[in-house]
Amino acid sequence: MSILKIAVQKSGRLSEKSLELLKECGIKLSNGDRKLKTAAANFPIEVLFLRDDDIPQYVEQGVAHIGILGENEVWEKDKNVAVIENLGFAGCKMSLAIPKDEVYTDITYFNKKKIATSYPKILQQFFDEQQIEVEIEAIGGSVEIAPGIGLADGIFDIVSTGSTLLMNGLKEVAVVKNSSAVLIANKNLPEVQQQILDKLLFRIKSVNAANTNKYILLNAPNTAIKAISDMLPGMKSPTILPLAETGWSSIHSVVKEDEFWTVIDQLKALGAQGILVIPIEKMIA
Ligand SMILES: Nc1ncnc2c1ncn2[C@@H]1O[C@H](COP(=O)(O)OP(=O)(O)OP(=O)(O)O)[C@@H](O)[C@H]1O
Ligand SMILES: O=P(O)(O)OC[C@H]1O[C@H](OP(=O)(O)OP(=O)(O)O)[C@H](O)[C@@H]1O
Ligand SMILES: [Mg+2]
Questions:
Q1: N or C, which end of the chain has less CB nearby within 10 Å?
Q2: For ligand 1, what atom is nearest to the CA of residue 73?
Q3: How far from 185 is each of 38, 59, 67, CA to CA, in Å?
Q4: What stretches in the chain show pLDDT beneath 50?
């Protein structure tokens, strides 16, 4: 069958963003309530709604051709799948934490300590590399409660804002890995599915580029055009249009969102005025 099957999380932290990404890629899905499988109306894709833990296994077996999940689950499940794109959402840390009143020295603090986690494989690998012996207590969830009920000395879990740690009287002492949502694929995709995936990937990259870049317009004295163009190279080169007022031009370009605030001060110092920053809908190089 010439359809690409994509596994996404049924409900949880990744579900909404995963479906939003497909929507931004122009893929129309019928919102069949509680259906665990749905086909798109305008793209040869079928979405399977699964527990995120099961996605690596299904993709390895080829039951789903591709899947969206946190890279943390990919590492933990350690299946034979290819990570093909970083999707840039659900960013989080995987950290070690201990009761807040404990004195932490360095990673050797954990020597012979008992650590509760839902990620025993990642944790064991980390401490093996450190050549530190620990006892790992694998639990399914609510990990942060473990030290408080005498189950473990410390924990290893996902941290984002840190508020769950705080609420449970814990402090983060070491970041082991940084994770975010990724697209994974079966390593032996049939030719037809590979072609559909290439089309989807092209759209995903355009959406992600648009989300991480902004369109910038500004007015500048002609004497500053060279310096500003060097700072804002854009996709090929900036557009420069003369203003009605002599000696001035309008410069249009693209700027990376995370560089924007650094660049803006430099632009102002070069005499730029009337700076407008506009979201980009799609970006195709
Ligand atoms: N606080 C957070 N901030 C950002 N990303 C997070 C956070 N917590 C989890 N994630 C990411 O979202 C993924 C899914 O988290 P969620 O809590 O929904 O998983 P789950 O409880 O294992 O769900 P499931 O029922 O599908 O097994 C995690 O594997 C991680 O990649
Ligand atoms: O640092 P924070 O912003 O507080 O986020 C961290 C918490 O988020 C996740 O749990 P989630 O809320 O998804 O609940 P779950 O354990 O039921 O999956 C994770 O397991 C942590 O407990
Ligand atoms: Mg899960």
A1: C
A2: 29
A3: 19, 6, 7
A4: none
Q: Per-domain residue ranges for the chain?
A: 4-89+181-189, 92-179, 213-279
Tokens of 227: 């310096």
Superfamily name and number for 4-89+181-189: Periplasmic binding protein-like II (3.40.190.10)
CATH architecture of the region 92-179: 3-Layer(aba) Sandwich (3.40)
Please count the CA atoms within 13 angstroms of the CA of 276 that sit on its side-chain side. 8
Ligand 1 atom closest to residue 90's alpha carbon, by position in its atom list: 5
Q: Do 4-89+181-189 and 92-179 share a fold?
A: yes
Rounded alpha-carbon distances, angstroms, from residue 99 to 95, 96, 144, 153, 255 = 13, 11, 10, 8, 43
Q: Which residue has the tokens 């000395």?
A: 153
Taking the centre of ligand 3 as the mean of its atom positions, its distance from the CA of residue 191, in whole angstroms, is 31
Any ligand 2 atom below 6 A from CB of 141: yes
Give this complex's ipTM: 0.95
d(CA 65, CA 193): 8
Report the chain's C-alpha Rg in angstroms: 24
Name the nearest CA neighbour of 159 among 140, 170, 146, 172. Answer: 172
Cα(14) to ligand 1 centroid in Å equals 7
Question: What does the pLDDT look like over 15-72, one tens digit per residue?
Answer: 999 999 999 999 999 866 667 899 999 999 999 999 999 999 999 999 999 999 999 9
* CATH of 213-279 given 3.40.1400.10, 3.90.180.10, 3.30.70.120, 3.30.160.270: 3.30.70.120
Q: How close is the Cα of 13 to the center of ligand 3, in Å?
A: 10
Q: What is the dihedral of CA 184, 186, 188, 190, to 10 degrees?
A: -100
